[in-house]
Amino acid sequence: MSTQDSVHIYTAGFSFHHKPFYMSEMDGVKNYLMRLQTDGRCRALVDGELVPVESGDLLIYSPDEPYELLIGEEPNAQGELAVESGDYHIFFGGEWIDQWWAKQKRPTRIRVPLNESLLSLFRQIVLEQRRMSNPYPEISGYYMRILCLETDRLLSEHPSTTPRTYLAYRMKHFIEEHASLSFKLEDVASHVGISVSRAVHLFKEAFGTSIMQYTLDVRLEMARERIVFSPMSLEDIAETSGFGSYTYFHRVFRSRFGKSPKEYRMENREQIQTGIGVRSPN
């Protein structure tokens, strides 16, 4: 890896506090800092003010930017005062990071969905840093690049950080992660802690489509890719893509793509063999 492409991770870890904790770097952190609040609450310096930080808040600080963290008594889920705060934190830098940071202005605090894809990136970086003997240190650097780019994607997908849009995007990510499984509207609403009627309204308001229609769209796209690229039987594809029965899958697939799953598989595999490529869905 060239110097220009370098990414360095200086410290990475996970902390959970049950006792008060205070940290202050008013002269600025020496490297970039990315901190994801996963549990409980704390307070951190954002735009010159010590503000509440909750689960799902991602903080990003650049070098020389003042940093202050206060973990004390905050209301828990039951409304009781308690000291409870969990977070992933990464101090990092490098030429690639400098270039990434300069590409756009990012807020210090970003609301993000605490889904497995994001958490696994933090977790993997921490695990790589804990290796006593690591002949491939650049691996953690590549994970860090992905995390930075994923952060930008999340920011572009839902730049608004209002509670309403945050809940809507959390539901959207829940659907995308669980589309291959059977779930109900109640499960989606329960995931974000609101009623079914409010969940339906917020999702429609944010994305212009219903929860069930979006779920169907995700499942059909999942099935379409498997039909073309996997050796699975059409019945197995229907089942593993979240459809309750092959009859229903056959009907909605034909309605969406204008041909049966079998016809779609034969046509697109012929195109692949002749070098034409897969036809994009209408």
TrEMBL record:
Give the HTH araC/xylS-type domain ranges.
Answer: 169-267
Q: Which of UniProt's keywords are assigned here? A: DNA-binding, Transcription, Transcription regulation
Family annotation (InterPro entries): Homeodomain-like_sf (IPR009057), HTH-like (IPR037923), HTH_AraC (IPR018060), HTH_AraC-typ_CS (IPR018062), Tscrpt_reg_AraC-type_HTH (IPR020449)
Q: Which domain of life is it from?
A: Bacteria
Q: Matching Pfam families, A to Z?
A: HTH_18
Under Gene Ontology molecular function, one entry of this record is: DNA-binding transcription factor activity
- Name of the featured protein: AraC family transcriptional regulator of arabinose operon
